[in-house]
UniProtKB/TrEMBL annotation, chain A:
Coiled coil: 444-471
Keywords: Coiled coil
Signal peptide, first to last residue: none
Protein's recorded name: ABC-type glycerol-3-phosphate transport system substrate-binding protein
Keyword Cytoplasm in record: no
Chain segments carrying region Disordered: 33-59
Domain of life: Bacteria
InterPro entries: Bact_solute-bd_prot1, SBP
Residue stretches of biased makeup (Low complexity): 33-52
TrEMBL record, chain B:
Keyword Cell membrane among record annotations: yes
Residues annotated as domain ABC transmembrane type-1: 92-306
Record keywords: Cell membrane, Membrane, Sugar transport, Transmembrane, Transmembrane helix, Transport
Gene3D superfamilies the UniProt entry points to: MetI-like
Protein name: ABC-type sugar transport system permease subunit
Region annotation (Disordered) ranges: 1-20
């Protein structure tokens, strides 16, 4: 009776509908596990999984390496909306790697920069990929989620760390769990750097000498002061300087302190870290930023006022704490190659200074194909893949890049970028994506907006950051 | 006797028929209910998986020091940390400040606009569309546009203020005005919804009441005060409660405008942004979970007060 009731027309219809729904959902989802899907499908927004099969026999037959990438990567070729430059899709890397490793398959999992840290954590927990692009390497290495790479490097005669731009390997070193010795868990994949950019045309119009290669704070102050006001040639309002007073202001301040011989603090593991946010150098640096604010347009604490930068109507002479990002491409796309120039950030006595940034690639501890994953790491740092990285608008991390034809064409901008990549402060700031960064940023904002004096703001930042460390 | 027997049998037949009929109805009802439960199953599973489980898991996490993989039980330490955190109470203040002024401005203003639209003989639909458009705009896109509208140097609002000789504030670049920037955005975005809801109620008020008032010599303003407004009480209560809950959960627009730490100087960091900052930028899931439950209790208390104040029956 129950069975009869259960299998009545209505119930059956409902069940059938559910099965169709489930089948449709499964059918519409992307294939991330198998080796039979086509690599050319589209990437829709947030994250996507792309797979394909090279199939066949070979040394690596049946093995798949899943590679997570962050940012503007895409399987298909695309065209940059601003520059009009065509960018090849990831299929280029896939085809080359699979041809070099017969039988192997590469699957890409692409995610946006937005919330990449928590997504990476979730992926590591669920063993979603073998290789990860991982700017937050220190947090994950400390959790024991990453494979140490030194044994692979030692065992591989074909591979050498000398291929990387100086300081890049050291910068990505991290602490394993319950150890106080930094180890290699990632190889540099995407390069990045911080530097000072300036508009030579405004310097010419004001009759001011260009910035030196390694300018001091006094030099910046003097020249920015001269170029704030009504431009003697165009009659437009010009500003001597601009910097972000919000999101990245902590790094701008730390770099100013480094230029004065100070530093953010000491230690790398959380239980060893001691902040020096209220040091005399930090205070002097923040007071300098307050002075510089007077020479900047309104809105630096809300990332406003620099809307004309990298356009022909630019009204700002010097930009602090800039990254390569789209700088090179956009400069050339806007026809500003004769105007935009780069100077280095402030350096300490050892010649180092500024934020170390970029992305390394790592192997997950739980990866079941570690040998193939290591092969991918070598491939991703080879000239072939690094040239691809450069063509997509990112910065390569290898020394040989300086000799590439398409880099030589823009060497005036690229050479200072490479120089900046080889002289950042290392080991990098371990608190760079943790709560102390937000505490310090908020207090710099408070000082820049007159909520607190520079001294009070730094004392508060020091106190709150230290308390945060104690409560961790 | 035989007759009686027949009568008994005859009389018993209908009763048997009724019982069979009754059972059939019950069976049909059960069958029908079963079918609907089958239809409800996917949604129910979804609720279990995406609502009940995270709520329970978040409660568990609030007693742990957790970065997502490594966990240590620390009892009520997270709650203590949040409740003694000046940053958290600053975010509570920001949330309430923005929420209260958004509601205080939008509901009366929306009601006035709705009354004006309702009294317009022509073009009602046009005005409804025009005022409702902001509400269908993505708040993220709207927030980005408002950054330009309220730009301290290039913004159209400051241009207009300067044109009439008024001082031009820094808006999002000044902690003393940034909250007002968010309030303007929130009012602009929500007012269309308020107008539509008020209009629906206005059109449901019996015209006979207005006719009777006119015969008694009531002026337009008197009709508005003594007929329209009292008849809108239920709608105002609904808007107050839904608006208040939405205001306490505010996150998207402040995240776009000021990032997770509510720049400048945490002046627009709401409770939602505080939770995001600690949970998803600092990996302090225990702290974020504790803050979420404290926020839940705050919303619960104020919704209860709102229900009492507005005398709304659920």
């Amino acid at each position: 009776m129950m069975l009869k009731r259960f299998f009545s027309k209505g119930s059956l219809l409902a069940l059938a509908f559910m099965f169709i729904l489930v089948a449709a959902l499964v059918g519409c989802s992307s294939d991330s596990g198998g080796s039979s899907s086509d690599g050319g499908s589209s990437n829709s927004g947030g994250s996507s999984s792309e797979g394909s099969s090279s199939g066949g026999d070979g040394e690596w037959a049946g093995q798949t390496v899943k590679v997570q990438l962050i940012g503007d990567f895409s399987m298909e070729d695309s065209t940059d909306p601003i520059t009009g430059v065509k960018t090849p899709g990831l299929h280029v890397l896939k085809e080359e790697f699979e041809s070099q490793h017969p039988g192997a398959t590469v699957e890409f999992i692409i995610m946006p920069w937005e919330g990449y840290t928590e997504k990476t954590q979730a992926m590591l927990t669920s063993k979603e990929a073998d290789v990860y692009q991982m700017p937050g390497i220190a947090d994950f290495a400390a959790q024991g989620l990453l494979e140490p790479l030194q044994p692979y490097i030692d065992a591989d005669d074909e591979f050498s760390l000398d291929i990387f731009i100086d300081n890049q390997v050291d910068g990505w070193k991290a602490l394993p769990p319950e150890s106080s010795e930094l180890d290699i868990f990632g190889l540099p994949f995407l390069g990045d750097a911080r530097f000072i950019t300036y508009d030579k045309q405004l310097f010419d119009e004001w009759g001011v000498e260009y910035l030196s290669e390694y300018p001091t704070m006094e030099e910046i102050t003097e020249k920015a002061q001269k170029m704030t006001g009504t431009n003697p040639v165009t009659g437009e309002q010009n500003y001597g300087i601009w910097f972000r007073g919000d999101w990245s202001s902590a790094f701008t301040l730390i770099n100013a302190a480094e230029g004065l011989g100070g530093k953010w603090g000491t230690g790398f593991a959380w239980d060893e870290i001691e902040f020096q946010f209220n040091s005399p150098e930090m205070l002097q640096g923040l007071n300098w930023l307050l002075d510089m604010q007077e020479l900047a347009p309104e809105g630096i604490v809300s990332n406003q006022g620099s809307e004309k930068w990298l356009t022909k109507d630019n009204n700002i002479a010097i930009m602090l704490n800039q990254g390569p990002g789209d700088l090179v491409e956009q400069t050339y796309a806007q026809g500003l190659e004769d105007r935009i120039a780069i100077a280095q950030e402030f350096k300490d006595d050892s010649g180092k200074g500024g934020l170390f940034a970029g992305s390394p690639i790592t192997i997950a501890k739980d990866s079941e194909n570690k040998d193939l994953a290591w092969e991918w790491l070598k491939f991703a740092t080879s000239d072939f893949a690094q040239k691809y990285v450069y063509e997509t608008g990112a910065m390569p991390a290898v020394k040989s890049a300086a000799e590439w034809d398409n880099v030589k064409e823009v060497s005036e901008l690229m050479n200072p970028v490479f120089e900046a990549m080889s002289t950042p402060y290392t080991p990098r700031y371990p608190w760079g994506s943790a709560q102390p960064r937000f505490i310090l940023t908020s207090e710099i904002e408070a000082a820049l907006t007159g909520e607190r004096s520079a001294e009070e703001a730094l004392q508060k930042a020091q106190k709150e950051s230290t308390e945060w460390l104690e409560n961790r | 006797m035989a007759k009686n027997s027949v009568e008994i049998n005859a009389s018993s037949n209908p009763s048997t028929d009724t019982s069979i009929g009754f059972e059939t109805m019950r069976q049909k009802k059960r069958k029908s209910q079963l079918t609907w439960y089958v239809f409800l199953l996917p949604s129910f599973l979804g609720i279990l998986l995406f609502m009940v489980y995270p709520i329970v898991e978040s409660f568990r996490l609030s007693f742990f020091q957790s970065n997502g993989t490594i966990e240590n039980f620390i009892g009520l330490a997270n709650f203590k940390l949040v409740l003694t955190s000046a940053t958290f109470w600053n975010s509570v203040w920001n949330t309430f400040f923005i929420g209260i002024f958004q509601i205080l401005i939008t509901i009366p203003l929306g009601f006035i606009f709705a009354s004006l639209i309702n009294s317009t003989p022509r073009g009602q639909n046009f005005f409804k569309v025009v005022y409702f458009l902001p509400n269908v705009t993505s708040i993220v896109a709207a927030a980005m546009i408002f950054q330009f509208v309220l730009h301290p140097e290039m913004g159209i609002v400051n241009f207009a203020l300067e044109a009439v000789g008024l001082p031009s504030p820094g808006w999002f670049s000044d902690p003393s005005t940034s909250k007002w920037g968010v309030i303007f955005l929130a009012v602009w975005h929500w007012i269309g919804f308020v107008i539509i809801i008020c209009l629906a109620n206005l059109q449901a008020i019996s015209p006979e009441m207005y006719e009777a008032a006119k015969i008694d010599g009531a002026s337009g303003i008197q009709q508005w005060f003594f007929i329209t407004i009292p008849n809108m009480a239920g709608t105002f209560a609904f808007l107050l409660i839904t608006g208040w809950i939405g205001a306490l959960q505010r996150f998207n627009e402040v995240y776009v405008l000021g990032g997770p730490n509510g720049s400048p100087a945490r002046s627009i960091q709401t409770m939602g942004a505080f939770i995001y900052e600690r949970g998803f930028t600092g990996f302090e899931f225990g702290v974020a979970s504790a803050a979420t439950y404290i926020m839940f209790i705050i919303i619960l208390i104020f919704t209860f007060i709102n229900l009492k104040v507005s005398k709304m029956k659920l």
